[in-house]
From TrEMBL:
Class in the EC hierarchy, top level: transferase
UniProt cross-references to Gene3D superfamilies, sorted A to Z: Vaccinia Virus protein VP39
Organism: Nymphaea colorata (pocket water lily)
The name this protein goes by in its record: tRNA (guanine(46)-N(7))-methyltransferase
Alphabetical keyword list: Methyltransferase, S-adenosyl-L-methionine, Transferase, tRNA processing
Keyword Transferase: yes
Length: 73
């Protein structure tokens, strides 16, 4: 599951929902430590290789994009 938002509160809500299901989903930094994440577990760049229009616009405005990826176990 890949999720991203430029709204920190939304990103936290999504993160909290998946982190609460840790018996079902594991964060990508646990599964693959080669994926670059910051100290809070946000993925540093879009792993999909194609940026959304929202992502492009938000970054051009100076916003940070908060990304998380989980794998079902």
């Amino acid at each position: 599951v890949f999720m991203q938002s430029d709204v920190l509160e939304v990103a936290h809500e999504m993160r909290d929902q998946f982190d609460a299901c840790s018996s079902i989903f594991k964060h990508i930094d646990i599964i693959n430590p080669d994926i670059p994440c910051d100290s809070e577990g946000w993925i540093l760049s879009n792993p999909m290789g194609i940026r959304t229009e929202r992502e492009i616009h938000a970054e051009s405005e100076g916003a940070k994009i908060y990304r998380r990826m989980y794998q079902k176990i």
